[in-house]
Amino acid sequence: MLYIFLLICLQIFVVFCELPHHKFEYKYSFKGPYLAQKDGTVPFWEHFGNAIASEEMVRITPSLRSKKGSIWTKNKTTFDWWQVEVVFRVNGRGRLGADGFAFWFTENKGVEGPVFGSNDHWIGLGVFFDSFDNDNRGNNPYIMAMYNDGTKAFDHQSDGVAQQLAGCQRDFRNKPFPVRAKIEYYKNVLTILFHNGNSNNDEDFELCVRAENIYLPQHGYFGLSAATGGLADDHDALKFLTYSLYPPGTQPTSQNIGDAEKEKFSKEYEEYKDKLEKQKEEFRKEHPDEAKRKDMEFNPDEAYETSQQRELQQIFQGQSSIFEILRGLHRKIDEVIGRQERALSMLSAVQTGGVPQGQGIPPPQVAGGSLGRHEIEALLGGQREIVQSARDIKSFVTDIHQRTGTIIAKQSEQGKPAGAGLAFEANALFQDVKESLNIVKRDLAAVAAKNQGGPCPVVQPVSCLTTTYFFIFMSIQIVVIIGYITYQSNKESQAKKFY
Fold first, then answer.
1. Taking a C-beta distance cutoff of 8 angstroms, is the pair 176, 201 a contact?
2. Which pairing describes strands 100-106 and 123-130: parallel, antiparallel, or unpaired?
3. Angle between the 259-286 and 288-298 helix axes, to the nearest 10 degrees?
4. Which pTM value belongs to this model?
5. What is the rounded CA–CA span in Å between residue 287 and residue 275?
6. What does the DSSP 8-state code read for residue 110?
7. Strand, coil or helix: what is 331?
8. pLDDT per residue over 344-380, tens digit each?
9. Is the pLDDT assigned to residue 462 strictly greater than 70?
10. Which residue, among 46, 64, 50, 67, has the nearest Cα to 110 in the 3D structure?
11. Which regions of 120-233 does DSSP assign to beta strands (E)?
12. Is 369 within 8 Å of 353 (Cβ atoms)?
């Protein structure tokens, strides 16, 4: 039992020791995004026929009848063994598709021809994804590999069954996810793994073809081609990823550049950079409008305001709104103070038996000889309400002052002095409001103390204020105060959105 276990471990060790080294070859690959350049070309590749390159994929042929297209690498390979992963889609409206899709590794670059969009009598490998059943055997869609030494013509009538190295029947049309094919040629062994596109698991491959003793050209061109006939499908290549394979111990080492060459390249780069900057400056001076337009294209963010600019704009708008509210508050407080002064003058005239100056109101006639106790208590209650309202106004103004100070502090921390003048003016206005409220508070406290101390005043019937006029005046004053408090509450709710 121990002997069997050691033998298995030895086989696993040998297999892992023989795994090749993979190196990604970007000159023989393409993938999105930005797959194609602005002129429609693909770097290191060239396409022919009806092939169209976009930012995300290369459409080898569209779903139109009798179309052919192909795309080939510009240069031959420089490595002996390789692995290619092709990610593609084959979609069509019909139940049957045509004609098919092909992967190529040939000694010479292919041209347009009858074999899935490429020429016949090629030298190298062709892997065909045949979606049309020409021999009516019901074995399509079909994947097959075929080697040609330049003397064979592909047999379309039998779908090349007698010419294939190996193959498998797999459906690759109209799949929910992209279909993948991994084609590996290593030490004269050809392996094709297939992903059916029914899941988004990138590693869900299954073996389709394995053929040994396959001798392909040592160096060649990679290519993809497709064709449509009476039926048509969209044949789209999304990715073509190429890896060179090296046996263990033979992988290429990175070439170190000497200090002298580094210095030379750095100097050339600086000279080129300076020359480019000078040309840009000359172009901006000669064509200012065109230069501005190009700058907007390369820097689209400059056309929009930044988050800091937006925040500064919101702070400025909030301070402007607060300033307007404070101005309105100042006017309302002036009105309240004026009304309070008139009320105090009228009360003092009632106590002294005179008529307030400038009022133009004839002295009311009172039936009784003096005010009752309940009337004095009602008067004192009204005065307490006025004092409480003044305190509420003061607390509201203090709250606004604190919030404005917070905004100004944040703005000063960010180094944005744009609202310094406005903050100073708002602060001065706050001081004026506070002083006015203190004066009102002192006056109300004096009136309340005068009314509470001593016996009830005795007034003359000729100059006394009647109970009816007194309550009418108090009602009007209470309505004004309630309206003002409601107005301030609405303004406060509107100002909260700036915090």
1. no
2. antiparallel
3. 130
4. 0.52
5. 18
6. -
7. helix
8. 777 777 666 654 444 444 444 444 445 556 666 777 7
9. no
10. 46
11. 123-130, 142-149, 166-168, 179-186, 189-195, 206-212, 221-227
12. no
